[in-house]
Fold these 4 entries.
Entry 1:
Amino acid sequence: MDGFGIRIEGLRKRYGAGDTAVDALKEVNMTVAPGEVVGLIGPSGSGKTTLLKCLGAVIEPTAGRMTLGDEVIYDGGWKIGDLKALRRDRIGFVFQAPYLIPFLDVTDNIALLPMLAGRPNGAARQRALELLEALDVGHRARAEPSQLSGGEQQRVAIARALANQPPVILADEPTAPLDSERALAVIRILNRMAQQYNTAVIVVTHDEKIIPTFRRIYHIRDGSTHEEAGEGREIAD
Amino acid sequence: MISLAGRDILHSWGKFVFTGVGLGLLIGATLTMAGVYRGMVDDARVLLSNSGADIWVVQKDTLGPYAEPSSLRDDAYRALRGMPGVARAANVTYLNMQVQAGGENASDVRVMVVGFEPGQPGEPAYLVAGRQITRSHYEAVADVRTGFRLGERIRIRRHDYTVVGLTRRMVSSGGDPMVFIPLKDAQEAQFLKDNDAIVNERARTAANPSLNRPGVPGLLEAIQASQTTSHSVNAVLVQVRAGHDAEAVAEPIRRWKHLEAYTRAQMEEILVAKLIATSAKQIGMFLAILAVVSAAIVAFIIYTMTLGKLREIAVLKLIGTRSRTIAGMILQQALGLGIIGFVVGKISSALWAPFFPKYILLEPGDALRSFVAVMVICAIASTLAIRAALRVDPATAIGG
């Protein structure tokens, strides 16, 4: 690592062409260090989701440069041939809803990623159990997702995002369905995991409860970002 | 790697199994239809085998005695016995009719009444109960599928017969169980008119001046006597001497006796390729329709199940699951459904086959072919769902 988990420079995304073209992202610049959790805040239609999709290698930006760890993954075009492998191995996703696979138990929901990456089943499950213990849901390892509370499900989703030790995690409003206490618990966990696993975390949120917890916040408005310092309020255990 | 399909099936096994059972009943119906066709073919072959004949001699230019009516004089067999290569020749009659059993109130049974000469070709091949016919008249041997019991009295035309023996798998090519009676009785049953008709016929003959000539004594009586006797049979069954070729024996019969002679292969061709050809096509159409319906059901079920998992599929794609893994999951589920359906279908067809009025022959080869067909149909049917799954945009897992 050369000091950042993910760096975005001059990222642009245009939908359509000609008179109907829409510039969803005009000038996005971000840097998130390993172990750091930053907030990405903006009103509806500001380009948050488009940015998340670009960062997640789900849609292709129009211009700009993205660097993940020490590797340029986008520079006017994808520099990585296998985007699925990129998403699987180097980007973790946490969604608004946990979106756990209902027909897999908790352990296998997490172990699935390392397995998809080619790790042996035993090693993948061992990794899953370690993450579950780290997230204080080790006792729910054999449970089905439907048997978990909302907070437990979100912890499992975070564990899944960490399964392949990605350098960056993209969290899309991960606290939206949770009450204040649980929402703050999720952010506390994300902070702890980010530091423990040296992972850069970008949290897209509207949630007023958790915004004061970020040390750095990127505001996005009309497709452009600007950075400001956050309160960095400590979250009590 | 985890079997995603297997886990999904285990997770929602109730829905899966019940769907499989529904599909299985449809597959069972398909297997039964195939069994009906096989049964018809087997009935035809058993009919030929049990007749004990190598050659069927019938009326010229007919496909008798099973596929078309055939009538020939009952003394034709004498001439045939003298033909080179003929070991035995015997008259037989075949007549499909309703036979009443157990008194006036009992229901009719559709049977094929066979007239034969005891100890000659055409006799029931084996008995499962009772004895062969030993008297010249009014005894019968019946196939067990008639439902008749030993000692039961059955009525054929105007005479009552006692069932003295029971046989098995003796059915006509149409599936009607056989009732064997002495040849003379069978000839009467088939060719002799009832008493009123005979009296009427005699009166008409007597009123005809060309047949009732005063100057020719005995003419009228001779003509009337000929009208009340029956000297026709439907076929002569011929057994060929060891070492002789059936076709070589049949050829002189055709040439010199002005009769039609069919070998076993030719008769099988008539029964299988001609007599039941329309039924076979009908069954073939049913099989095709059932296959299409099965495919449509599997496609609909798998498609619906896949639609219910689009969000999970989007997440799987977003976290880097290969398209072939997702396609494999859906394909395996479709094949799993097919396996459940096939097992249920095979068991159900075996369970309900004995209750069908016609013989259902479920051959292992047909089951194997059906299994392959079910797997292919399921694989094809899953393509719609696979297509839907592969079109899912992983971006839909991310809100917006």
Entry 2:
Amino acid sequence: MNLFQSELKYYLRSPIIWVIMSLTAFLSGWSFLMSVDIFTAMQIKFVGMSDAPTLLQGIVTPVITAQTKVQLLIIAIIGGLSFARLNTNNGWSMIVSNQLNEWEIVRQKYLANLVVVFLFVLPVVLSIMVLAYVANLDFLVIIVVIMSLLLFIMWMLAIALLLSCLVDNSGFAILLCIVVFIFLWLLSQSTTNVEWGKNWIQVISPFYHFKQINNEVINMASIFFFVCGTFLSLSLTRLRLLHKRYTI
Amino acid sequence: MVDINLVIESLSYVYQKQTILNSISLELKNPQTITLLGPNGAGKSTLLKTLAAILYGQSGRVILNQLDAELNRKEYQSQIGYMPEAALIMPELTVKEQLQLLATINQIDESQKAIDSVINRCQLQAVVNKRTHKLSLGYKQRLNLAQALLNDPKVLILDEPLNGLDPHLIIEFRSIINKLKNDVLIIMSTHYLAEAQLISDRVLIMKNGHLIDDIELKNIKPPDYDLEKVYLKHMENNT
């Protein structure tokens, strides 16, 4: 039994997580079937259009984009609970008085949370893979789209872990995560001065970079943003643990 | 029996401009059970945390058999068993799983042997497969003690281990402590003066971050000596 397994057990032995997982699976399945249904119904109209949307534009991208909105709540709950809940069961005493280094604690907790969040998106990923197989879509493009979702989740979860270890109450940690995530989403909606060139406010938002990768072209700047942002947040989380170790 | 020599040299700890520990100096040797007494806010828990190398004083040193608590934190902590006031309870795990987790993260060799040993010593056999949040208070305290004993420590630090226990559980706890006292140096804090007198070989009285008395109880027992009277006298004198 290590910290990774213990963290997984915390979520997977919690009935509320399975209820939320069932609900999100239902919502994801429903939105996927609706997209397929609408796309099928629109086929007659598409025949006459010169730039009719492809399956990728009509189903895959909207479904994956909808997932990013659902994940705002899921990541806030999973990531928000990770460290903040330690106050209720005296878990910090375990964190500050053990022989593991801080980086190892962060790594094991992060990976366990990542696995749990991936379980939430698994139904959608499987549905899209099946659709791609049945409809003979280009798998490389599908993989890029799914990778963009995974990078987005990794980035957001790292931020959630950082926020979680900054506060002492798990409810507040979840709320703080939701507020920060919505703020980041709002930044991506900003159109201020966009006609004059690059909108730098948008560039801060992970939603913007998610869209960039979703343009069917691998955008290295956006991948760099996700990877570096994840690493930076986890490093700050490690520093926070180090600080806790010497001040608790 | 291994010789244990725990030395505290002019230890001071300040938190938010308030002096919690004021130049404490002590030398503790085994086999002894040492009890810290004092009112709330006297600095007992802070002193125990500095002895467990969870906190470090702004000045002074804590040295266990030549090992400095701050400079050699890992080696030092591997020889210390710390039982916090509030038990660490991970509701998602069973008693056995929680002990396995603690053994893993504290990098304990032969972890299964260590786990079996503490289960026996703390009489946890009946609840090994029970989820920790479903345990009674008595079993939670035993689990708390088992966690502190996992690394087979030379020094066992217990922060208010008797809190909330009923008389029957206090007697059980006392018998566990009495069995342990020959192997390890036990340092505990409590508000139960009668228990302190029964369990301890030495009593340290603290007030406002100062160590105000250091009493050897080895050879003096009631009715010749009444700890309660001595304690109350100290509290009145130093108000």
Entry 3:
Amino acid sequence: MKRSVGKITFHLFGLLLITYFTLPMVVAVLMSFGPSRFLRLPTNKWTLKWYVEFFSTTKWMDGLWNSLIVSSLTIVFALIVGMATALAFTKYKYKWGAGLYTLSLTPVFTPAVIIAMSLLTVAYRTGMHGHYTIIAVAHSLWAFPLVIMVLKVSLDGLDKSLEEAARGMGATPIQAFFTVTLPLIMPSVLVGALFAFIISINEFIMALFLGTVDTETLPRIIYPVLRYRLTPLVAAASGVLMLLTVIVLLVAARLVNLGKLVQYQRS
Amino acid sequence: MNTEEQKVVLEVKNLTKEFGDDTAVKNISFDLYDGEFLFVIGPSGCGKTTTLRMIGGYESPSSGEIRVRGQLLNNVPLEKRNIGMVFQSYALFPHMTVQKNVEYGLRMRGVSKLARKKKAAEVLSLVELEDYAARYPAQLSGGQKQRVALARVIALEPDLLLLDEPLANLDKRLRDTMRIELKKLQEKVGITTLYVTHDQEEALTMADRIVVMHDGNILQVGSPKDVYNDPTSQFVAGFLGETSSFQGKARVASDGFNEIVIDEAMIVRPIATNSFQAESSVFVSIRPERIKLSKEKQTQEVNCTTGIIDFVSYLGSHVFYFINILNGTALLKASEPIPHGEASFKVGDFVHAYWQEDNVVCITDK
Amino acid sequence: MTISTLSDRLSRYNKFFLLSPLLFFLIFFFAGPLLWLFRVSLYQSRGSSGFGIGGADGKEGGGFYVEGTWTLENYFKFFQDEYFRDIMFFTVELAFIVTVVTMLVSYPMAYYIYKAGAKLKTFLLIIVILPKLSNMLVLVYGLQILLANNGWINKALVGLNIIDEPVKLVYTLFSVVVSKVLLIAPYTILVITAALHGLDRTLRDAAMGLGASGTRAFLTITFPLSLPGSYVALLITIVWALGAFVSPLLLGNPDLQTLATEVPKQTFENVNWAMGSAIAFIILGLMFLVVLVFNLIIGSAIKWRTA
């Protein structure tokens, strides 16, 4: 008896936490389809007017466009740094390897305000301020450590003799990489790219510090609205961000071709 | 097999490999002849795999020479060497079908699609996997993977085939079948092959010649028969097959023959061609299947001992006796074929063990 | 004697070539800027004026700091001014509360996930990661709506007769903590879940086989062994909590501001970059200090335990 009471409390606790984790998001999504500035449930007046307004306002659309540019750049930066580093640490031994590896992961544990402020001071000096690149650089500081971690796991799991076998059959190191290693780590590369995209598209503090009117990303436009004037339009904007994330997730899943992946990893 | 006029395919000369302070391979030399099936065997860490990897180009030697058909390979990158390698893990590309795996090397060499297809079909039929061309490696059994790995390199018609413990990942039954298949295939294709293993049984059943390595050195090179019957070192005697070895002192008997006394109780007399320095330390080694057991005392005075059976190991076709001899200070191993399924002795039996002069192997090195 | 093949030489070149993107980013976009941040914090502030915008060129009438100066006055000002001191104390206080609440939420949740069956586990992991996949502003917006005076929470509490009239929940310490925990907990839960899954499950079975009850097996085996992983989670939580920015800014009130929110205030509103940099650097210093202290106290205790 005592045991089952404990079990029920345990599950109730779990349920409570699930609610805590999901409810704010659910409410935000509901708001974006709601008719008024305040949430009154139940309502039968669901509407898409906020989305219509979002897509017909130049400011919001520019923000969306800027967000996409910055996140694309972030993916490129994060993948270049992450892939090269993961390959380096899998293939070679370095004198200060352990320390350097830890150092390569530290940016992700650095709060946004610090990264943002330090890059701001440098961006002004170098004339990079107001350019998409500096925002993407800031975002990739959070993204590339994740790419390194994901790819490192994937590369460590690869049979080293695969690449050797390719070389032994006449492939140059570059051919071996592109025909054997890369296809096999492709799922992890895509997961890394996905992380980079999600971080960049949602990041707000660095974008606030490093962006200008010309490079305002979507979260940076949402922020003042949220602070000074609550409107379901921000819910719609957030909805668009979420939708983007979901689409990218689905496309990635499609590209990775999960079924096939499962098939050849079942060895 | 390995007569002088045969062509040398691989020539290894004074090969050494150092890893930091460790010397994995110590100044070894050997040749490999055309069409030969050469085994390099030794316990793990003896340097055999490192040797193989240096020949294949996967490691670079610290010093020494590797030549294939006279051409020095030391500075040839591995993709430019025409040497096929089958890995212990098979290293089949999991994202390619069997067909694509087999075509891979040809594709890298720029062979046309049509020629690739033809060659792939040819080698796949050679290993009897024609029907599996469209499968992925994950859909194959261990033995089939093994054959694909082999087909993939045979398709390139390499000068030399390297096999790194190719049967180690298979279960015992399959390993025994694959052993025969592999040997037959090697003879059919006539490809010069270097095979690395720690499994002495594989070496004895398949090899034309065996190179025994230990601790980075080559201890002995010879045919399976030579290496088994005339090991030149205690290590080789113990590593290939079962044996009982004893250390004793050499002396000249009253009748003028050389003999070795063990523990001042057991006298071992090898064939007369052996000669030793008096009082020198000699190891003798006797294979278990050459030892005969009896309950009655034998007439011979030398090459015999008595003991009590300590353990009987039943192996189906024969039994293995572990006999405590010399008052329990030494162990003698003897085997007995049991065609009728019954062992002649049981634990605790007192037995007389005896053997022939020509079954005694004497090793004077340490 | 070493024979170097062409591929050896190529690979030696490759060895350092592959590290160059990382080093480039770490030096020019991470370590370098942090150093420069420190340098900027040592500039003399150029008073406060609305027309500072125009770049740090040091020309009269423009710039966010006075070029060529070296001074500690920003740091002195920070530690002498009660305004900044209060903010610092509140930042530490908030970090403490958030850390405690996050750990209290995360450990049971991680354990719940650890104990769950395969399907429920996947579902729970998705739920936990979900806040991280979405925009933090979405969460803040959702919480603003939920916690409003006429929001669901108040309505539910009134409906259940727990309270007579709505309580102010939003723009209070409560809403700041609730949102900050929601932003950090996914990391903490994932790290602890990973730590729990890294444990040898047979140890617990062995303990129960030796007669320990489920609860005792947890208390004597699972919990102590999960401490090192939980410690990492704790450090991550503290670091993030000290950098709290969005929660106090959007769900707090003027009395509930942190050092992090003070950075853009000084930088953009007061156009005082030197002060903004100094505060950013002080946050960094606080983090190092806390991690260091924790490492000395808890870290050594846990190391001893698992040695």
Entry 4:
Amino acid sequence: MTIACVAFIGPQNNPMYLRSLEPASDDQYMKLHYVVHCSLDAVEEKVLLKRGPGDVQESYLGLLYPTEDYRVYGYLTNTHVKIIVLLDDEAPVKDDLVMRVMKRLHNLYVDTTSNPFHKFGMPISSPRFDAALESIVSVYPRPGGSVGGFKT
Amino acid sequence: MLRGGPPGARNAPSLEQINAEVFTLTYGSIVRQLISDFEDIEEVNKQLEQMGYNMGIRLVDEFLAKAKITRCSSFKDTAEVVAKQALPMFLNVSANVANWSPDQTECSLILTDNPLADFVELPEEHRDLKYCNVLAGVVRGALEMVNMEVECRWVGDMLKGDDCYELRVKLKEHRDEKFPYKDDD
């Protein structure tokens, strides 16, 4: 199981952060944006379907949908920030492992928005965030690292 | 300010405590507000220092009343008390005193942990901001009230990539105690 891409999407479905963990061309970034964009529909569906009266929404949404190259996993915070993780492995995925990564990404997001200089709701551009994200993700072996910033 | 010493600290009087994150975020908001109000980083540094000074001149009384300390015999003693007792009492971190100048009038307070600056990442356009300048003011204000004129400046700042926070404290003048009344009163 390797993580190909991590994305943070704001409450109004505004992209805040998207990062490929492998070297990626602009075209590939476009593709990742596309996959993440599509996953937002799946998030909505999941949330609407699951929610019965009096239900407490679980943050971890699990597998949203599989594509040809990726499996898309989602996580929804109480403030409707979505964390989308793309896994690109055929091997069986351990759900609790993904959940742990999501939790840590959520914590990282909280710490980053606590920075008084962070403009709330704006794209995240912070070297410290990049580094911490890498270290969270690097728990899971992947072929090669890369530096790829937020591209729109 | 953050109250209460670390558990088990020597002479730690029981003071009211506040949640560290509330404190950190509040200070962050103040700094941001100052930046948007003044727009000039130098002016913000000055304002933070002035705010700290105003705190320091009040805080020293509380410190002296609640910490069970004896009179300091030298500036060296004073520096130790600030680093090992005053900072733990109000900020819940202690500092090391180091880098004494040969004539013993200048030293550094070294902090490796600073609750003021948790979460903070200084953006490039604010490189000149002395984020924790309020502390420099507090030390200056507090020492001024005990008849020591000092000059404080930051020479190390972890937000700017240094290994630690280093506050340089320089003793400019040690005034005699003055009393507001005359001898023949």
